[in-house]
């Protein structure tokens, strides 16, 4: 029982409501992941005469079906980012369920490729909005000693959804999947509506102090039956929060353009840009969307859909390892291992596919699966798993929130570019040259990080 009394134990009495809230929120993360993973095996079916729909996709249409997620993500970033402070976290959490539900209706009723375009756009809006509101809401309700774990659960839940999407897209009928997946966003919407309260910080900022106190007591699991000494101690914490949010901002200078060209800011832009470029142009997220096509062109005789499911499991493992090592080994070491490992894995994958095209490699059919597993695992322990934490910590404190938000919008634009050009590169360059290009970008990132990326483990959020 002493284990449950530790402050960093998720089942500690104080942390239980926060954990329950995080799990409910991640229903939409899982559902979003299913939408991402489902596309990979489904796209291969839609490009054949046996397409479950009344039409067959060509390469140019495939690239747009894939890349509309990126446009939607940018839209979701900007939309939720602009209304979050006005309407609050809870309303934004509710809103992101609506476009995702519409996505699955469009998938079911699709009678032309335009249905899929709009559906993927809506799915992207949910994903883009989720990556804005989830971290902010969790930072406002979670205790500092468990905040990192809760934040990591977002990507872990997305990757669980991706694996489920791979399996469903492979083994279930096209028109059955939407009705099964719709259970997630609908359950999420009802749970948020009934069980999740607005964060105390947002309520304080809007002057609603009574509701803020109730919200604070709810998320810290403070009961009227608790000893008065414990209640008084907790309410002192609430009063400090209220003073900081209502008076602290009066003494802070407003952010100006000059703050974005300060020496500290200028030093941050280089590492931030390389983090963004390496995260997307390494192909890690793009390959998740097109994994079945990659294995189909790899020269392996193994079932592409089976290989894709294995990759989904490896991706979950990589993200989980990040939650264990990020605060132990540090960000820079994980980013170096990640970029170096991805560069080597993709280079080797490219050589295998090159030689598979000119000689019989059937006895080595397992090699593409092993190489891609290394690529995805090593990519997730650094480039994916440490992405948000590195991006936030690299900026100076005064512009951190705004700069990180703008960086996420830029990242979403890169998502669109990569999802659009990747199938075209496979068609025109071939799989080998495409993999070598991604390896070259990641290799450059490895060299850059080795010389210029600062270690930020243990860095206070109050320092530059």
TrEMBL record:
* SUPFAM superfamilies documented for this protein: MFS general substrate transporter
- Domain of life, per UniProt, equals Eukaryota
The protein's UniProt keywords, in alphabetical order, are: Cell membrane, Membrane, Sugar transport, Transmembrane, Transmembrane helix, Transport
**One MF annotation (Gene Ontology) recorded for this entry:** sugar transmembrane transporter activity
Membrane-spanning residues: 20-43, 63-84, 91-111, 117-138, 150-170, 176-196, 268-288, 308-326, 333-356, 376-396, 403-422, 434-453
For this UniProt entry, what is the primary localization, expressed as one broad class?
membrane
InterPro entries in alphabetical order: MFS_dom (IPR020846), MFS_ERD6/Tret1-like (IPR044775), MFS_sugar_transport-like (IPR005828), MFS_trans_sf (IPR036259), MFS_Trehalose_Transporter (IPR050549), Sugar_transporter_CS (IPR005829)
Annotated membrane topology is: Multi-pass membrane protein
Location in the cell reads: Cell membrane
GO CC terms of this entry: plasma membrane
Domain (Major facilitator superfamily (MFS) profile): give its ranges: 21-457
Which Gene3D superfamilies does the UniProt record give? Answer: MFS general substrate transporter like domains (1.20.1250.20)
Protein known as: Major facilitator superfamily (MFS) profile domain-containing protein
Gene name as annotated? Dwil\GK18462
């Amino acid at each position: 029982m002493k284990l449950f009394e530790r402050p960093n134990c998720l089942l500690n009495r104080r942390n239980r409501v926060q954990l329950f809230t995080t799990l409910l929120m991640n229903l939409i993360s899982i559902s979003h992941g299913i939408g991402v993973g489902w596309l990979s095996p489904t796209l291969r079916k839609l490009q054949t005469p046996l397409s479950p729909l009344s039409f067959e996709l060509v390469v140019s249409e495939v690239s747009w079906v894939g890349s509309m997620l990126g446009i939607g993500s940018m839209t979701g970033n900007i939309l939720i980012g602009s209304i979050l402070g006005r309407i609050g976290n809870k309303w934004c959490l509710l809103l992101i369920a609506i476009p995702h539900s519409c996505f699955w209706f469009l998938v079911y009723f699709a009678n032309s490729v335009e249905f899929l375009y709009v559906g993927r756009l809506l799915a992207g809006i949910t994903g883009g909005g989720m990556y804005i509101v989830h971290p902010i809401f969790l930072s406002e309700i979670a205790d500092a000693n468990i905040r990192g774990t809760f934040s990591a659960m977002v990507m872990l839940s997305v990757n669980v959804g991706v694996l489920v999407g791979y399996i469903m897209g492979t083994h279930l009928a096209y028109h059955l999947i939407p009705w099964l997946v719709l259970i997630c966003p609908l359950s999420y919407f009802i749970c948020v509506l009934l069980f999740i309260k607005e964060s105390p910080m947002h309520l304080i900022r809007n002057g609603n102090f009574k509701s803020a106190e109730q919200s604070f007591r709810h998320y810290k699991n403070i009961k009227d039956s608790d000893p008065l000494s414990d209640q008084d101690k907790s309410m002192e914490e609430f009063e400090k929060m209220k003073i900081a949010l209502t008076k602290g901002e009066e003494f802070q200078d407003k952010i100006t353009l000059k703050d974005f060209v300060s020496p500290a800011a200028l030093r941050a832009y280089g590492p931030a840009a390389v983090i963004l470029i390496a995260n997307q142009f390494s192909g890690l997220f793009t390959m998740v969307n097109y994994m079945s096509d990659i294995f189909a062109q790899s020269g392996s005789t193994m079932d592409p859909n089976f290989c894709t499911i294995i990759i989904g499991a490896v991706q979950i493992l990589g993200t989980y390892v990040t939650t264990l090592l990020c605060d132990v080994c540090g960000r820079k070491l994980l980013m170096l291992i990640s970029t170096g490992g991805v560069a080597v894995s993709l280079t080797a994958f490219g050589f295998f596919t090159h030689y598979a095209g000119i000689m019989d490699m059937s006895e080595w059919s397992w090699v593409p699966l092993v190489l891609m597993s290394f690529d995805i695992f090593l990519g997730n322990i650094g480039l994916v798993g440490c992405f948000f934490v590195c991006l936030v910590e690299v900026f100076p404190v005064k512009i951190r929130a705004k700069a990180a938000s703008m960086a996420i919008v830029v990242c979403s634009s890169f998502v669109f570019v990569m999802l659009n050009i990747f199938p075209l590169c496979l068609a025109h360059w071939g799989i080998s040259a495409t993999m070598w290009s991604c390896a070259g970008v990641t290799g450059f990132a490895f060299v850059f990080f080795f010389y210029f990326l600062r270690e930020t483990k243990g860095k206070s959020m109050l320092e530059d």
